[in-house]
Design goal:
The protein is built from one helix and twelve strands, in the order H-E-E-E-E-E-E-E-E-E-E-E-E. It has 188 residues and is mostly beta strands. It has one helix spanning 2-20, and strands at 22-31, 40-50, 55-65, 76-90, 94-106, 110-111, 123-126, 129-143, 146-156, 158-164, 167-174, 177-187. The strands form two sheets. The chain has an eight-stranded antiparallel beta barrel with strand order 1-2-3-4-5-8-9-12.
Length: 188
């Protein structure tokens, strides 16, 4: 039910962005994920709407993979996030912005390549959880409809339960951390 509510909220906010006049961005992501050994790589889509000239709202749909060690090789994370941004134009084409928001982070079940206990290929299902983030970025518009952006994002999130072969185990895994997003921005 929580997943359905998150999807409905994302659709409602994206239609609000289209009506308010805004845009969308597609981006690539790199993120150091706390307790995981390797950084996550992925990408996403962000929908933007201007509330007033300096204040905006964003909805982000993203995903990361390739984090962790051999045990987590086939895992990935999908996210639905929403945030408010405060932007400061620096001339006609340059804008810096900061923002903060929250999101829902989904970790689908995957099969590990590393044996755990008596299972040679255990099924692992981490909790789906809520988290919070802050973002700071720079946007450069080449014309009124097209530009590029780069941003630094810090995520605060962790899960406290994981299911391994139908056994629920308490854990304390921090998957938050510092990340970088960069991509193309389309305004309308």
């Amino acid at each position: 039910m929580r997943k359905l509510s998150a999807v409905i909220s994302a659709i409602a906010l994206s239609s609000m962005a289209a009506m308010a006049g805004g845009g969308f961005g597609v981006y690539g992501s790199y993120m150091d994920m706390g307790d995981y050994d390797d950084p996550g790589m992925g990408g996403g889509l962000k929908l933007q709407a201007d509330i007033v000239e300096a204040l905006g709202v964003e909805v982000r749909l993203g995903g990361l993979t390739d984090y962790g060690d051999e045990a987590a090789r086939d895992s990935y994370m999908a996210s639905v996030e929403g945030n408010l941004t405060l932007g400061i134009p620096l001339g006609d084409v340059l804008k810096v912005y900061v923002g903060a928001g929250g999101g829902y982070y989904v970790f689908p079940e995957y099969e590990s390549d590393v044996a755990l206990g008596s299972s040679l290929e255990p099924n692992i299902d981490p909790d789906d959880v809520f988290g919070f983030f802050a973002v700071a970025g720079l946007q450069i518009m080449f014309n009124p409809n097209f530009g590029v952006f780069g941003e630094v994002k810090y995520l605060l999130a962790e899960y406290d339960s994981i299911v391994i072969d139908d056994v629920d185990l308490p854990v304390d895994i921090d998957f938050g951390g510092l990340g970088i997003n960069a991509g193309l921005l389309f305004r309308f």
